[in-house]
Amino acid sequence: MSMKDKLKTELFPTIWCPGCGIGLIMAQLATVMDELALDKLNTVLVTGIGCTGRMGAYMNFESVYTLHGRTLPVAEAIKTVRPELNVIVVAGDGDTASIGGNHLLHAIRRNPNITVICNNNEIYGLTGGQTGPTTPQGTTTISSPGGAAFAPINLQGLVNTNPRAYYAKTTVYHQGPMRKAIKEAIAWPGFAFVDVASQCIENNGRRIGFASANDMIQNYRTQYKPAPPGALVLGPNQLGIIKGLVADESSAS
Amino acid sequence: MISPYAPERRAHRPPTIVDYVNIAWIDEWCKRCNICVEICPKNTLLLTHDAIIEVTDCIRCGLCERYCPDFAIVVLPKRDEAGHLPPDAETVS
Prior knowledge:
heterodimer, A: alpha/beta, 8-stranded mixed beta sheet, 8 helices, B: Alpha-Beta Plaits, globular
């Protein structure tokens, strides 16, 4: 068994732009699924609209291609009806935090046993590079030529409003931590959220001064540092995992 | 194999795999994003004439395979003195 058994390689090449980071996330997700022996009988992928949503088409799993932003209710429904399945949500930052932001709030509140892998490229990439909810303040995009006006959404703070949730922040450069975070998130008994910073070179990187996709990958290498051990809150450019309390049956009311 | 989603599409043909000494490169899957060329610490790879070629000095670090978003580069198993791959080497795709 290898990682490529989890991929539909007869549909390759993928439709993403040259240098897109989604392929790196897909490679690590397929590797983790191969290590955990997940197959199409015990796993469902729920994907949203956007570039990241096409990942469901390239993986050898049953997948639901949901309405825009409605990945989390569909995933909760699947988990409620078939609790023995592993439900993995793959969505972009626009799908998760912008149009699906309200669903994200209530999924965090209800604490379903699902895994969310958020491809956070800090832009609306599919529609051409408009300012999204995760765009850092001051970033020049095509819809904010003078710089994005508002501060980005705090996904870590949102997820940690549930004390039993799991939050991890990685980048596509740090593939070992990404693999570890995805593996722990799938095994986590509750809501697990993996925030993966990835590059969008065509619609974001070139407009803010990066020459190539490798420049953005090297930027992740130099900018992001691991959080100190035992940290309860991650800083702005820190990698790490914040685990909540494990829910046990006695304390559940 | 004919895709079940669009049966009118042409049947799947296996991609063209180019074997160099240390790496194999898959032509149809590569989008020429230049990540492998720039991330290589020894400047082993070169994008020229619309193809990735392996020049010299490969130290088999595997960075090109790890950071290729399109699964288009695979580091081959180590060759013996005669230049043959081990007989139990996995095929690329």
